């Protein structure tokens, strides 16, 4: 799933390549992806892309005041095309293509654009055409962005105070903190040397400060690694930079212990027992507790 660092890099990528182009057309193949009908998606035709920004894990293309907002969900991705002039007409089907955005030709006569694709059978990729990004419910409900100056240790303490949620789930909650998903919550907790099942309200002031440092540093480092990469290279970069997520059975780069996994119905987490849980493995079942 693309998370804050990858979406930030996609934002930068589109800002460099799409801004200044006029939208020639938007072809919707996966009709379930389009979540709005007024304004219609056809209203984007003829509008110039004047800016690209990010809201948590949402991409926002400003088209002369009308916004094309994209959430790539778990299995979605954006594929940039340098020239779509010879592309075959899109037809609804069972393939991964959900949306194609065609842009005006550049000085070389090439007609660039991008495609939104989604793998798997669970179609969760979402596209909105709105007058204000806040009209998208998921954007309106976002918590603070962890990379803005206002996200201070004091702000994090305010978020955690009195919250009886396990810290892993809290970090993934977009209404609490925007942009962190399953992968980077694993990475943050490893950097903070904290159990994923620690209760948020139980953190000491020192642990809150450590967690804040881990959040900001982990995300900024990932953004920096992704800086300047083409969209097609971001997935590989994300995978190569992860220390614990999706590395169950491999040695921890910090202490050498074996990275363990806890599996749930539709997701899993990875952690290092030595770094995070005092050397004790977590039971691999829902609502895990430390093994006695």
Automatic annotation (TrEMBL):
It catalyses: Hydrolysis of DNA containing ring-opened 7-methylguanine residues, releasing 2,6-diamino-4-hydroxy-5-(N-methyl)formamidopyrimidine. One of its GO terms (molecular function) is zinc ion binding. Pfam families: Fapy_DNA_glyco (PF01149), H2TH (PF06831), zf-FPG_IleRS (PF06827). Residues 243-277 form the FPG-type domain. Residues 2-93 form the Formamidopyrimidine-DNA glycosylase catalytic domain. Its cofactor is Zn(2+). InterPro entries: FPG_cat, FPG_N, H2TH_FPG, Ribosomal_uS13-like_H2TH, Znf_DNA_glyclase/AP_lyase, Znf_FPG/IleRS. Transmembrane segments: none annotated. The keyword Hydrolase applies. Its EC number is 3.2.2.23, 4.2.99.18. Keywords: DNA damage, DNA repair, DNA-binding, Glycosidase, Hydrolase, Lyase, Metal-binding, Multifunctional enzyme, Zinc, Zinc-finger. GO terms for biological process: base-excision repair. It comes from the Bacteria. Belongs to the FPG family. This is Formamidopyrimidine-DNA glycosylase.
